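TA notes, week 10

Several of you asked for a full example with nothing omitted. So below is the full record: structure tokens for the whole chain, then the designed sequence directly under it. When grading your own attempts, check the secondary structure regions first.
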């Protein structure tokens, strides 16, 4: 959240609630950063137009452009969705749940589950951030270390040094290399930070229901313990009524989780599908840089760093999406492991209904294409390999 706030990515409604002018100032700052990122994206599209309209298409330069243009396009779409009221409701639900846990939850086990999940997420985000910094450094330093290459421009052979990105600038990059390099550094740092910090928010929202399912699984597996806790607070009710209260609250909590995932799918399903499509192309274009030309050791380092962060990013998305499905299925196992057979038919019927509902499954959607899972992650890798082989064959 702190990283996202630095670039105006977090909805302003949740910040500076007691300071109206600060909140409005942050809202203006958020719009400015969005416009700046949009201008960077437009410059990549203009450069793409220059590349495809040339007499001979430079495959290496085209691959370099396609590394960032589709990715930044998805970033704009994702951030536009984050400004919608539906996404704000998801964030509001998470924040309200967190406040409730801080104020009223006195269950050490549930608090431990939430804290452990939060620590795991924070650790992964820090690893992601560290990878991003290393990748940025490798790409920004590379032009200073790589030798210039001879290029034919208007029948003249000139020495051209590579630049980190493939973007259009309103001046000659060869004649004004220092100015072009500074612009590229600014674009690289701002663009990658804007994209990555926005993904931190999305990953946090995506992970939230898995944490809730872990807590729900713990409650169902230890139903007798929570039944006794209710009996301690409400001594006038029977043991069976206490079991019914535990199950009823569990069913209500599960319905809230199901609705949360449904709302997320409705909002982000198409965006995640587009990201799925561009991810394999993105990875292939990064690999094409080292397969279609002779490379230096610095180029190899930067490409490897980029591939590592790309795979880690995708793994986070699809691992947590897969975990959602697995944890939902494990609820049926957890309740079956409890002593449900010692209760009345009414309690047994309620447990049966929970088990039946879990057979339906709970999954994050990729639009109309299917569902997010580790198998889809492998599909991206397979598609990237196919793209690379195609590029290598037409080199």
């Amino acid at each position: 959240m702190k990283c996202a706030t630095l670039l105006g990515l977090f909805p302003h409604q949740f910040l500076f609630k007691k300071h109206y002018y600060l909140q409005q100032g942050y809202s203006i700052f958020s719009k400015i950063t969005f416009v700046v990122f949009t201008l960077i994206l437009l410059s990549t599209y203009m450069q793409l137009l220059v590349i495809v309209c040339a007499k001979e298409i430079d495959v290496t330069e085209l691959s370099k452009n396609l590394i960032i243009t589709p990715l930044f396009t998805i970033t704009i779409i994702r951030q536009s969705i984050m400004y919608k009221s539906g996404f704000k409701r998801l964030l509001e639900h998470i924040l309200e749940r967190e406040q409730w846990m801080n104020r009223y939850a006195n269950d050490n086990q549930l608090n431990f589950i939430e804290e452990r999940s939060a620590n795991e997420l924070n650790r992964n985000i820090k690893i992601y951030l560290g990878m991003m910094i290393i990748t940025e450094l490798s790409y920004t330093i590379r032009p200073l270390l790589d030798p210039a290459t001879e290029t034919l421009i208007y029948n003249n052979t000139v020495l051209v040094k590579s630049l980190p990105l493939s973007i259009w600038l309103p001046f000659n990059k060869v004649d004004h290399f220092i100015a072009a390099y500074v612009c590229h550094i600014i674009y690289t740092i701002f663009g990658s930070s804007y994209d990555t910090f926005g993904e931190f928010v999305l990953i946090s929202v995506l992970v939230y229901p898995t944490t809730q399912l872990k807590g729900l699984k713990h409650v169902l597996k230890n139903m007798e313990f929570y039944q006794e806790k209710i009996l301690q607070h409400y001594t006038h009710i029977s043991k069976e009524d206490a079991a019914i209260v535990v199950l009823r609250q569990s069913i209500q909590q599960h319905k809230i989780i199901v609705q949360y995932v449904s709302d997320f799918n409705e909002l982000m399903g198409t965006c995640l599908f587009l990201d799925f499509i561009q991810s394999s192309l993105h990875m292939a274009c990064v690999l094409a840089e080292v397969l279609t030309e002779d490379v230096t050791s610095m180029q190899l380092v930067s490409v490897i760093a980029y591939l590592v962060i790309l795979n880690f990013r995708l793994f986070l998305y699809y691992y947590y999406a897969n975990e959602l499905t697995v944890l939902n299925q494990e609820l049926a196992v957890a309740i079956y492991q409890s002593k449900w057979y010692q209760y009345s038919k009414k309690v047994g019927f309620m447990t049966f209904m929970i088990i039946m509902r879990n057979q339906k499954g709970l999954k994050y959607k990729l639009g109309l294409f299917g569902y997010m899972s580790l198998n889809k992650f492998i599909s991206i890798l397979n598609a990237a390999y196919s793209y690379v082989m195609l590029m290598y064959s037409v080199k």
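The chain is about 75% helix and 5% strand. Use that as a sanity check on your answer.
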